[in-house]
Model the fold of this input.
Amino acid sequence: MSWAQAAPGVVGLALIWVVPGYAVLRLLGFRGLLALGGGAAVTSGLSGVLAIAYDLVGIGWSLGSLLLGLLLAVAVAAALGRLLGSTQHPDGVTVAGERELRHTERGWLALTWALGGGVLAAAMTTGMGRADQPPQAWDAVFHLNALWFVRETGNASSLGGLSPMYADLAAPFYPATWHGLVAVAPFLPGVTEAANASSVVLGSVVWVAGLVALSRVVWPARALPTVLVPVLAASYVAFPAIAVSMLAVWPFALSVACLPGTIALVIATLRGVLSWRMHLALSLGLLWAVAGVVLAHPSGLFSLVLLALPLLTVLLARQLVRMGRRGRPVRAALLMTVWVVAIVGTIVFLVNFPPVRSIMDYRRGGQDSYLPGVGSLLIDHPLIYVYKITSVNVVGTALVLLGVVLALRWRHARWLVVSLVAAAVLTLLAAGPPEQPLRVLAGFWYTQASRINQLMLVPAIMLAAGAGSWLSRVAARRLGSPLWVPAAVLVVMLVTLTSGLRWTSQTQVMASTYTTYPIAWGTILEPEEIAMIDRAATTLPDDAVVLGEAVAGSPYLLHRAGVDVVFPQLSPIPDSPERTVLEQDFRDWRTRPEVCDAVRALGVTHVYADSLTFDDPLNAKWEETTPGLRNLAPEEGPDFRRVDEGGSASLWEFTGCS
Done:
């Protein structure tokens, strides 16, 4: 499927993701860009809760049931808005900024969004190639088959809905909010194109909308920072490109994309000029947005704490200072002490909480020095894999540093500086020496620098936007020109000095797991092999069950051809002794009776063989845990019959254990 053919699906998915949440927020009292920026987070929260509720009461998950549930949520929001009087604001009271954007300012924002969001979308689609081109990364295999199971089973619950991925031998909690929304995307027949379309929507719509909303409440007196935000967002590679390609962590990417819009809702909700009714109405919308961030991926809770805790502390401190000046200094000091103790106590609890501890104990290597990590942050070079430096973002870094200086001097939005420094420190801890004791703090994000680095972009882009606006105003005053002239020059400079908004780096990163061979970390599928897998829908019988080494590509048969496989993911399936036997000893099926017992127990009818080795130019993936399935070389005979072949792979009917 070409991207032109997938365009209606991309638009449809964007509308499903944004419009319901926007309507809920709008009816609860949020306005304009703020409702737009937080809409995707609210929709995600509603969708995640609906999926769990539907599973509990036996309602199947589909596009119709999702839309029906979202429509009910909009109706409830309308009733609450009318009850609390939040649908109509009192004169002069807004929550998205000190004033609404003028028509000309909206026009400029539309242009910069088209530029920034358009470059992000174009770079992603160019790197991917076709809309149905399969990504080849460890997590991608899991998520694509999980999407297929959601479609087949009608279950998108995070509480065991993805148990088929574990052969129904376990029903663990797994964040399935992204899977639920993407699985029902309209006009996209396959899960591959649905997942790829979600990358475009998350990057060019959800992420940019959230940043735009946040800029309106961070810099409410001026429109120019908001206008600059889409272009600044497109100049970074750390997100969304790394998240949706090399990492292929779409649930985490959804959580990150919803962060800025949710933080914007936090600021608007806690403004002191609103009535208690308005605070209550806005709080309801904020709670759904927070639910969306956390249900998208549990680490979203820690991401929110990391970025929003400085903000909340500043807001509380301001209130307590006012309390102290009104003659209650002891109470103010006591409340601040309680706040600090609560923060420290919560962190200590989480660090020792077993489910969280299991994440934090994830073993990951690091570098002997922090200097390489510092260098990568300064130029926005990916902190994962070894990519050639084809473009840098030094101009973005300069704007961020200027924004830090201005924020400190103006005493405005200084919480952004704290959030930026905190995210940078955690990123460097994850990237640096493993023996550093404080590195445990990066464990909330699997001690992966390339994940934490994405969080830095939220405060960084806000600070850069403020700095860019200040530079433009200074230039306009000195030159006696309209403000739009130096602002336009700044945009042109951003595009030029970042090599076309990092076009070469953006496409390089995306293509590295889609279309550039050898695929980064090792090739799973060759182009001819992809064609063979797609043909399997007709070359294999309906009751076929295929056994093959997972890292060689056999799991792709499930979501691309609808063919059952023994291993639907690259990770081993626990509590399945039959699968363990096949992983270790299948090639010895003639001499080991337990192998044929496992074959019969699992209903294996066909074998997927691949002769590609790690030493070949294509650099095949390699997994030490599956020696019994590695580089199988069947021969035509009474036990094996070749069904199809493509590239270095082939499909065989297996009757040796019949």
Q: What stands out?
A: DSSP finds 24 helices and five strands in the chain. Strands lie at 545-548, 564-565, 606-610, 640-646, 649-654. The longest helix spans residues 449-479.
